[in-house]
Structure to design on (313 residues):
């Protein structure tokens, strides 16, 4: 009971703080989680040299292909966001949208406690277009929601594919929930946010394709480290779960490695090999985010589309 009151008291104190102070506290917590987990995994539970030893015989061509696929997935995310901008008559060119996107990734990764990447994007677009902060913020937020929904539904679908349960009703129930969810989520969101009604279906398809590209990324990372799992779907499930949980750490560092390590123990994988794969994902993510520093110094020129094109499924 004392713990409950302590938790409520802490939440109350944080709510009373200024937004900037609150952001510093949240960032500090994320950094602490990452540092503690990295220290525990690399120096206590496992050994850093055992983990890095797997990179000696790695096929770096496969790792490079995985990196290209990650960049492709981010490029596709820019196209998905463009649907929501079109709905509010924000005629932003793909080039400007992509530059803002990568600059946002840089802010989110390398400027802890500072302005968030999405917040900066909303600020710049509001400054250059006569469109309300509410409309732009809602478009950016809904793009994130549909992406998160697709990832969660993919995780549910993988419960069916991975044969993780002996109960048929859970296995086939997960199949039913995922199939219904891929249709129901866009429909429900469309009923609430009618201006984006048609966009939700297109962006859900984009999100599914994006997840399939990340499946390819996972495949090439595993191949690059000579990991040949009997059940690839379990590795994919671990990968997606670690992606969801990465929001509670700094850029996914620590939490991604922890999820892979404990899942490897649970499913009888090689723990150091699985952790080395997770660390590769973290390095790829943070490396691509660093592209945004170009636009931090160069700036982002806001340009409209020269010719409006329709892309639909």
């Amino acid at each position: 009971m004392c713990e409950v009151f302590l938790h409520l008291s802490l939440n109350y104190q944080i709510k009373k703080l200024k937004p900037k102070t609150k952001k510093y506290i949240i960032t500090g917590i994320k950094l602490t989680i990452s540092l503690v987990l990295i220290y525990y995994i690399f120096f206590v539970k496992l050994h850093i040299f055992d983990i890095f030893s797997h990179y000696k015989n790695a096929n770096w061509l496969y790792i490079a292909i995985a990196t290209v696929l990650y960049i492709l997935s981010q490029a596709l995310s820019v196209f998905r966001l463009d649907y929501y901008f079109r709905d509010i008559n924000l005629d932003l060119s793909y080039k400007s949208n992509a530059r803002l996107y990568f600059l946002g990734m840089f802010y989110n990764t390398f400027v802890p406690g500072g302005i968030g990447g999405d917040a900066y994007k909303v600020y710049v677009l509001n400054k250059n277009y006569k469109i309300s902060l509410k409309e732009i913020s809602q478009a950016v937020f809904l793009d994130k929601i549909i992406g998160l929904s697709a990832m969660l539904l993919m995780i549910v679908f993988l419960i069916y594919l991975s044969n993780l349960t002996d109960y048929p009703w859970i296995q086939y129930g997960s199949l039913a929930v995922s199939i219904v969810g891929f249709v129901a989520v866009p429909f429900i969101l469309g009923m609430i946010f009618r201006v984006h009604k048609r966009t939700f279906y297109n962006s859900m398809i984009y999100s599914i394709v994006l997840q399939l590209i990340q499946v390819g990324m996972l495949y090439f990372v595993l191949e690059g480290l000579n990991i040949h799992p009997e059940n690839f779907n379990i590795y994919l499930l671990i990968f997606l779960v670690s992606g969801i949980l990465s929001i509670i750490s700094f850029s996914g560092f620590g939490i991604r490695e922890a999820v892979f390590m404990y899942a490897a123990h649970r499913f009888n994988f090689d723990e150091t090999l699985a952790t080395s794969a997770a660390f590769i994902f973290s390095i790829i993510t943070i490396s691509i985010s660093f592209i945004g520093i170009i636009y931090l110094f160069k700036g982002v020129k806001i340009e409209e589309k020269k010719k409006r094109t329709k892309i639909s499924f």
